[in-house]
Structure formats: C-alpha cells, structure tokens
Amino acid sequence: MPRSIETDESAVVSLPFRLTVSGILFAVILLLSFGYLYDFLDEAKEKAALDEISRLTAAAEQLSLRGEGSEVSLELRLPEGVSVDFGALPGRQDKWPADANDYCVHTGEKSTFYYSCASFSNPELNGPVFLGSGRHRLSLSTKLEPKFGRLFVIISENITLNKI
After folding, report:
1. Do 141 and 123 contact (CB within 8 A), yes or no?
2. pLDDT confidence of residue 163
3. Positive or negative CA dihedral for 119, 124, 126, 132?
C-alpha cells in the first residue's frame, strides 16, 4: 500500500527525537569550543608574559657578560594571573644559590621552568626574587658575591604600577 504525503506522519513522530539529538550535539560542540578558547587564551597570556620576561633575561645575560658594576633599568608588564620566580624553582627556594640560574613562570595552575645564563638574586644577595602580575619598574645590577664567588644579577623593584 503506497503512502501518501498527506497521510504519512512518520516525519512528525521522529521530529522530537531529531531535535533532542541536535540539541545534545550542539551543547557538546559548544562545550568543546569553550575549552579550546580557554586554552588558547591561556597560551596567549603565557606568550605575552614570556615576551616580557625574555627582555629581562636578555638584559640580565648581557649584564653578566659585562661583569660587576653594570646597571640597567627596565619596565616589565606581566599579564593578570601570571607570576615569575627568578632564581628559584617551586618548593626549592631554600636551594638558592644552586638554582639561581633558573626561573619559573606561573600561569594559573601551570608552571613552566626555564634556564638562564645569568644568576638572579634579590637586593640583599640572600635569595630569589618573586614578581606578580602588573607593571614593574626594575633595576638590574651586577654584584660579585664573595661568599659564593659568583656574579649575580640583582633584581630590585623601584615601584609597582598595577593599574596604569
């Protein structure tokens, strides 16, 4: 018995099922898109921070090559949610000066470790330097520590300019 378009209601019966499946697929695709967008924004924030930090590490390495008594000032802007530890690795702050050449970039829950040719120190020459989010005016200078016989790049902060 042939079906007539006027009497065939099979499309109407399966319509709610089709709409339900389409809605679920749309929700899954939307959730995946938000996940990828969040990861993309985190990577962009980390790249912006690394661009700024590379300016500081390049200047520190140049100062190390020049020897004791060199000095330079620069401004560093770290994005919101990014912090940097110069001269220490997380959980090993007491290992300074063994880790003085290392620095760690914290972005949210992610921590990335890097090595520099320069040895970093705080102004008192007794530990690492920690910088949080925001703008920082920094003074970099070099000093030979007689106790360790090592040339350190001292990072001292002149002023923090957070929301300027």
Report:
1. no
2. 47
3. negative
Quote the CA–CA distance of 140 and 76 in Å, as a whole number. 12
Q: Is the CB of residue 21 less than 8 Å from the CB of residue 36?
A: no
Region 78-102: what's the mean pLDDT?
A: 82
| pTM score | 0.69
pLDDT at 24: 92
Which residues lie across from 138 on neighbouring strands? 74, 157
What's the DSSP call for residue 87? S
What is the distance between the alpha carbons of residues 55 and 75, in angstroms, rounded to a whole number?
Answer: 9
List beta partners, residue 157: 138
Taking the C-alpha atoms of residue 78 and residue 72, their distance in angstroms, rounded to an integer, is 19
Which DSSP symbol is given to 133? S
